[in-house]
Amino acid sequence: MYKGLVLVVDDEPQIRDLLGFYLKRAGYQVMLAEHGREALRQMEKARPDLILSDLRMPELSGDEFCRMVKEDPATRDVYFVLVSAVEGMASRIGGLNLGADDMISKPFHAQEVVAKVESAFRTIGMQKEIKRQNQELARFRERITAELSLAARLQMGLLPALPGLAPGFRYTHRYLPAEGIGGDIYSILPTAEGGLALLLADVSGHGVTAALISAMVKTSFESHVRQSESPLVWAQGMNRDLARNTLSEQFATAFIAHIRPGGAMSYVMAGHEAPILLTQGAQGGLHQPHTLSGQGFMLGIEEDLPFEEKRAAFEPGDRLILFTDGLIEVAREDHGQLGHEGMARLCAELPGDQDAAADRLIRDAQAFIHPTAFTDDVTLVILDHL
What we know:
Number of strands: 17
Radius of gyration: 35 Å
CATH superfamily of the largest domain: PPM-type phosphatase domain
Structural class: alpha+beta
Largest sheet: 5 strands, parallel
Strand content: 15-25%
Number of domains: 2
Order of helices and strands: EHEHEHEHEHEEEHHEEEEEEEHEHE
Number of helices: 9
């Protein structure tokens, strides 16, 4: 059975031959070299698993040979054992500082050297296995990274295209998933009468599982919107779909609304952060923030949970600001949080330009929690009724 290739380098023929004999008898293949220069020529033919080299040799000494082997990326992983007639801790430390993996002192017994080689090959075997596993892990990580990148692009494709709304409405969004792909999702659909169906949802958890469920929530919402004009009916149907098709510990918070062309808005709050309404805020400037009222159960806990439909005015000139809790529930180093009240203060005075307003809200929220960063998925939607 092939146990490995050993290169023996020594300027004394009797020592080379003796070590070669015992190593071959122990099952190793052996290459012999008189000094470091010849050893380098031998290594051009085959790369050894282990080098057993004398320290003091003509032409190219063992220490210089060791340095060259360890500095070459192609050979730096070869296990290198220096053999030295100089005893003592200083000599051993010096050899190891050169990059040698181990030292043997002269005089030695041939069986001792074979035992040392056997021990070294056990180490070599473990190193090879670790390297193999690391390479396998690296390939797995590359594959997962590529798949997550594709999933993130697909998830971004689920978000509504700008502008893509009914006449008289305009919106922008900021979507910052915590792990490249997340559980936040929203949908804005024009309705037949010229209004809008609106969803902002936050699925429990992070990563791929949350993203899959968020896609399910969006699909369920759009399906029920096609069948009814009532946010209450939409919420009840979405709750049943989620409860039947997910695990018991998985749920979603959601804000679900139907906005009619004249400005009447009906909505359901399903455990979600209440949106902030700025009356006549579409032009920017200083306004009094109003938090939409209402509470409700989260979607997906049980099939027959009750929900309540609320109403509010969303008239031309108004601005509606929706967000997930990842934006406001990050704890600072002093354990303070921006919270809903802090978010309302940030919304009180914003630019009229939606993108500038969205950027300011994200920037101000980040400044509030600095140096802490967002740890949850963050979604912000600004909807203006023109």
